[in-house]
Write a structure and sequence with these properties.
The structure is a homodimer.
Chain A: H1 13-29, H2 36-43, H3 47-53, H4 65-77, H5 85-102, H6 104-116, H7 118-143, H8 149-173, H9 180-195, E1 231-232, E2 237-238, H10 243-253
Helix pairs in contact in A: 1-2, 4-5, 4-7, 5-7, 5-8, 5-9, 6-7, 7-8, 8-9
The structure holds a DNA duplex.
Organism (chains A, B): Streptomyces cellostaticus
Keywords (chains A, B): DNA-binding
GO molecular function (chains A, B): DNA-binding transcription factor activity; transcription cis-regulatory region binding
Amino acid sequence: MSSSSAAPAAKPPMRDALVAAAFQLFLERGYEQTTVDDIVALAGVGRRSFFRYFPSKEDVVFPDHERCLADMTAFLAESGEADEPVRRVCDAARLVLRMYAENPAFSVQRYRLTKKVPGLRAYELSVVWRYERALAAYLRGRLTGRPDGTLRADVIAAAVVAAHNNALRSWLRSDGKGDAGVAVDHALGYVQATFGRSARPHPASPLPEPVSAPTPAPSVSGGERAEHPDDVIVLVTRRDAPLWRVVQEFESTLGRA
Amino acid sequence: MSSSSAAPAAKPPMRDALVAAAFQLFLERGYEQTTVDDIVALAGVGRRSFFRYFPSKEDVVFPDHERCLADMTAFLAESGEADEPVRRVCDAARLVLRMYAENPAFSVQRYRLTKKVPGLRAYELSVVWRYERALAAYLRGRLTGRPDGTLRADVIAAAVVAAHNNALRSWLRSDGKGDAGVAVDHALGYVQATFGRSARPHPASPLPEPVSAPTPAPSVSGGERAEHPDDVIVLVTRRDAPLWRVVQEFESTLGRA
DNA sequence: CTCTCTCGTTGCACTGAGTGCCAAGATCCC
DNA sequence: GGGATCTTGGCACTCAGTGCAACGAGAGAG
């Protein structure tokens, strides 16, 4: 078998070599100042092979979004009726964060690049849009029959993406220092508090346990499943809200169908 | 002065001729099957002039978004402290709708085009993104000092855009039949009910304008700060979340600096 | 009236992304 | 060894977009 020695990876060596060469040139020369011919020359491969692995020059900057999008789609597809939809899409968003957090250095470099190059920003937008549509499609399925089903699905999906990106960008701006998971959890918590309600009928579980925190990780945890009946509901309302509204919120929060 | 006779417009005749020629060819031949040379040949002008009026081939499909974006920016800039921010951005979004509603036939044709051509969808996304950033920038200015100012600004801007687009697209899908204004008002009413609150100390003014929203306004709504000492905080976490995370959420929610 | 200065328009040549086609080499299976 | 198949590379082509310089019409000065 091929030894996992110095070379980058095993499965698609050429692809990774192209990404490495591309980023090296992009960083030292700039994106638009680098031609595809420069990349393939540095990588030592034929120009035609570049476009075999990447449909366009922009794709080489986002080499793993396609896989991540597939993961997210699968994650949403394996969701059951028991899952609370808003929580589910928030968890799906965390998949994207995890991908960024896997390679902080790479992500920060790419962020600097996309911030400067309008063409890359536009490309990133189209990628983000596909994530958002995946979330919205899932939510539409879960909210069919509800009063403003598709409207709410679209708005919630947009809110989740915006919150995720807000936290992600602030993390990237700080050069990947700090815990991205915490920031994203906070941002998604805001969205969840705004739109979410747990489907669990368990009413009484007032406060989380002290927890000796064996897991410093806020449990981003990609493919988690249904086994979280132990949520704690916290709800923000005005004190001047009529009581019936509070009760209504409360009831709908703890799991109407 | 030049008479406003039969011709489309007066100021830039060449620009309009290019738009007309482009759409004629796009509709009968398809976007990607039409080259810039085809357009300029039909319009009877030099190829170089095309790129004088439109930075790229895609721009000819959205000839008036630049102006609309400037209008929106101006509209937001002339806003005073007295305006309720969420209402203001909703009104700003209505400016975009108005532009679409001015030429229903044109808008529907363009919608069909952008729906089919991936490149145009990507371009439209970048345009929409600029609208969203304009809204978010305004909201950030209005929410500075608030607990999660920039987060809330980004999320609200995204929600407004999503709601607007939801209604707009459904109107476009129906060939421009029906009242687009009503649909958008309803969608924006949902957003306003979700995020909005009157900045006025007047407690009893649920919906000032005739937004056509007799909605009971679920107003889930995140946490306001200083001028609302009467909030009740409700927080959603997992039971297995470490306590430090809960405390952190709690503090950041009730607006520490 | 003519010269000139300017501005809008145009043609031309060039770069670079992306594609189709086919040849050359590697691999696998028999 | 002898295909069949897949990957890679090279070549030529289309088309978007840009820089440059020339051309022509209108405005103003003499």
